[in-house]
Amino acid sequence: MTNNSRLSKKIAAIAESATLKVDAKAKALQAEGRPVISYAAGEPDFATPAHIVDAARVALDDPKNFRYTAAVGLPELREAIAAKTARDSGWAVSPSQVIVTNGGKQAVYQSFQVLLDPGDEVIVPTPYWTTYPEAIQLADGVPVEVFAGADQGYKVTVEQLEAARTDRTKVLLFVSPSNPTGAVYSPEETKAIGEWAAANGLWVISDEIYQNLTYDGVRATSIVEAVPELQDRTILVNGVAKTYAMTGWRVGWMVGPADIIKGAANLQSHLSSNINNIAQRATIAALTGPQEPVEEMRLAFDRRRRLIVEELNKVPGFECPVPEGAFYAYVDVAGALGKTYRGVTPTTSLELADLILSEAEVAAVPGEAFGPSGYLRFSYALGDEPLVEGIRRIQALLSE
Ligand code: GLU
Predict the structure, then answer these.
(1) How far is the CA of 315 from the centre of ligand 1 (A)?
(2) Segment 47-86, tens digit of pLDDT
(3) Considering the domain boundaries, does residue 54 fall inside one?
(4) Pocket probe mutation, ligand 1, options 16, 101, 130, 370, max atoms within 8 Å of Cβ
(5) CA–CA gap between residue 123 and residue 142 (Å, rounded)
(6) 371 and which of 31, 125, 126, 357 could share a cystine (Cβ 3.0–4.6 Å)?
């Protein structure tokens, strides 16, 4: 870092979100008329279900929605989130334990801000979502990576976590289903990890944004459901973006002990205040209305999951375990590196992603965005036809 940076050291040290960056690059190429197929951003291709959009329309006719509302969120929405948390995470919370945020991303950011003092360590199971280490560092914390590869289904063990624990460890980050790998911890694995965290007096930040997107009869068990003793030291992060195809509405939330949520509320009251009231009204409809559209989307993701994994495993040098959740396939591409394709010899997944984009017009996010090199992430939240076509292009390129 140069001393003469015009930016603060903190901001100069962070990079642009790699997922958003690759997505923007793919969209720019598409806008130029290039036939790019993008597996970059984790964003459902479906429209938000009609009854949710209708609720927003109705909200537009009510002038009280044009005013400031409580920074923590509308009371009816906090209640709906409390009910959802009891239903899906097995934790009976009061609305005072809920704060509504501008997407899951603000919930992640605020969770680290309210828990960390300078130098506090956060154990980050790796591969991790690209935003976590930056959000930890913005809160003056230290991310400590614990890596699990394809050979262990991208899931860390208690032994690995224990080996990473120091007397500065304050928080365990737990993400199941995982972005970027789609891995889902079993109830037994979740319990063992939760018990280890409780026994060592750690806090847990559990990102449950993909909790409703699981397949093969698997259910994502919340760490607080597996180990209720953690209720006093856990923050759950969640939102409607992925489950309800509502990425652009920007509605997320934190659930936690009342004193922690009060701290987050104080922060949010200076940062962003209430989130858009129209989006909050739509979210009430999402959480309390019919859930059939969610099931339809989940079934489509399930079909695409099986399709893409089958096709990815046909690419020479690619190895992709079957993910049980979210909408990502995380491919170990080590076997495809170091070979020459059209005069180019990629030795890292970053170089391979560049080659695939320039030669096959296919966008995927390289492993470097999520931890070590040697992997590519494919979001399969896109239509069946381009889904298969893009992977076939890669098969053709890497078979040459
Ligand atoms: N969370 C999604 C992803 O990982 C959306 C982009 C982002 O915010 O990172 O692709």
Answers:
(1) 25
(2) 999 999 999 999 999 999 999 999 999 999 999 999 999 9
(3) no
(4) 130
(5) 9
(6) 126
